Amino acid sequence: MSTPVICIDDLSKRFVIRKEKSLKERLVNFGRSELHKDDFWALRNVGLEIESGSTVGLVGPNGSGKSTLLKMVGGILQPTTGTVSVRGRLAALLELGAGFHPDLTGRENVYLNGSILGLSREQTEKYFDAIVDFSGIEKFIDTQVKFYSSGMYVRLAFAVAVHVDPDILLVDEVLAVGDEPFQRKCMDRIRQFQSEGRTILFVSHGLDQVAELCDRAVVLESGHVIADGEPRDALRVLRTEFDQIRAEDLARRAEGTSSTAASERITVEAVEVSDLDDVPLSDAGPVADLKVRVTVNVPTRTEGLVVGCGIDSALGVPIVGTNSKLVGVDLPPLEGRQQIVFTLSDLRLGEGNYSFHGAVVSHSGEELDRKRDAAPLHVSGDGRTSGFTWARPEVRVASAVGGPAR
Ligand SMILES: Nc1ncnc2c1ncn2[C@@H]1O[C@H](COP(=O)(O)OP(=O)(O)OP(=O)(O)O)[C@@H](O)[C@H]1O
């Protein structure tokens, strides 16, 4: 195991939130401040060790503490309790404009940033042309950065961060404001960093990106680490968390708009998978014909419901899905526990593990319930293809079509 380059020990961060007092509170506290002060713990007792050469994705719902954690690693925020220690040169791309002085030009900011990162003027000079070239904003390099668009900001900031030879790179979601070609360029550079054995810690809401890029994912929820490990396992925890947040939100809305109690909610109870002869099945070859039974529970007779099912990858990426409306079937009014049966013929899945979900949607298109990971499916193949779909491959070298192109 390689040595940790970032050690986060029992780290907590408290913010003091100031809220305006209500009129009543102001009268009661007459003469004193108009502001309430509340303590808010954005992070609680977080402990992590990040090894040299690893790429770690920090993920979690909005407000879970990802940026706060990254800022403490970057030294922009001080911990309330606990410690962070970092070994090696660290370059950070945290908030838009952080580390840039608005009244200085792009050129001056490159030198300022270089010196903050511990480079001499000569060293920054050596990297300068490559930085400007990578950023693609040479025309504006002598403009004050306060006139930059957010995309221009991030282009220059990322270019500086990756050209100053850092051992550790911290990247917050800011990259998302760059346009698509620039984002791709950044991703290529991050991959190059990985191959050079540098350490990367990045926050992303792009779960597929985390799965693709990272060798480890850490899931934060309300300031606590709730999963840490293989991206596949950690992201599964996060997707379940998102489903729960959504289910709670739906339940709250249902209670708010009508007097629907939890026992009155329409739910997906089960999803069962079998072959066409009704033999239950959890293993299949690449080409399969399947029956999927979705059991819904409808406490009171309801018209216009749409029921669906689908297959997700091991990371929760939807692979195929359908529903009664897409197939052109109007379901009759449903009441009680009812089974809707789908046939999925000629399914061609690549080798791997998948799972089925079932969902029920109201007449107006609002998703009422979704049961994820409701039934597993393992697809075995011959190892001759990769990816989510299967094909029968053959390969040969065609006859020469002329001399080499010059
Ligand atoms: N300077 C601050 N003062 C008060 N509260 C703050 C401050 N900075 C962050 N917070 C609060 O701390 C919590 C965590 O914020 P943080 O930005 O770390 O979350 P996040 O996981 O990065 O969220 P997002 O996915 O929305 O970017 C939030 O509730 C936020 O409102």
Structural domains: how many? 2
CATH architecture of the largest domain: 3-Layer(aba) Sandwich
Distance between the termini: 48 Å
Which small molecules are bound? adenosine-5'-triphosphate
Q: Quick one: overall form?
A: globular
- Helical fraction: 25-40%
Q: How many H/I helical runs?
A: 8
Instruction: Find the structural class using helix and strand composition.
Output: alpha/beta
Biggest sheet, spatial arrangement of strands: 5-6-7-3-8-9
Summed over residues and divided by their number, the pLDDT gives a mean of 88
List keywords for this structure.
single chain, 406 residues, alpha/beta, Rossmann fold, Coagulation Factor XIII, Chain A, domain 1, 2 domains, five-stranded mixed sheet, globular, binds adenosine-5'-triphosphate
Question: Can you offer a commentary on this structure?
Answer:
The structure is a single chain. With 406 residues, the protein is of the alpha/beta class. It folds into 2 domains: 4-238, P-loop containing nucleotide triphosphate hydrolases (Rossmann fold); 265-379, abc- transporter (atp binding component) like domain (Coagulation Factor XIII, Chain A, domain 1, Distorted Sandwich). Helices cover 26% and strands 36% of the residues. The chain contains 8 helices and 17 strands. It has helices at 23-28, 66-73, 106-116, 121-135, 150-163, 180-195, 207-213, 231-257, and strands spanning 4-20, 35-51, 55-59, 81-86, 90-93, 168-171, 199-203, 216-221, 224-229, 267-274, 283-284, 287-302, 306-313, 318-323, 334-348, 352-361, 367-379. A 6-stranded mixed β-sheet has the order 5-6-7-3-8-9, sandwiched between helices. Strand 13 and strand 14 form a beta hairpin. Helix 3 (106-116) packs across helix 4 and helix 4 crosses helix 5. The longest helix has 27 residues, at 231-257. Bound molecules: adenosine-5'-triphosphate. Adenosine-5'-triphosphate is lined by residues 15, 17, 40, 42, 60, 62-68. Adenosine-5'-triphosphate binds at residues 15, 17, 40, 42, 60, 62-68. It comes from Xylanimonas allomyrinae. Keywords: ATP-binding, Nucleotide-binding, Transport. InterPro entries: AAA+_ATPase (IPR003593), ABC_transporter-like_ATP-bd (IPR003439), ABC_transpr_TagH-like (IPR015860), Bact_Polysacc_Export_ATP-bd (IPR050683), P-loop_NTPase (IPR027417), Wzt_C (IPR029439). Residues 25-247 form the ABC transporter domain.
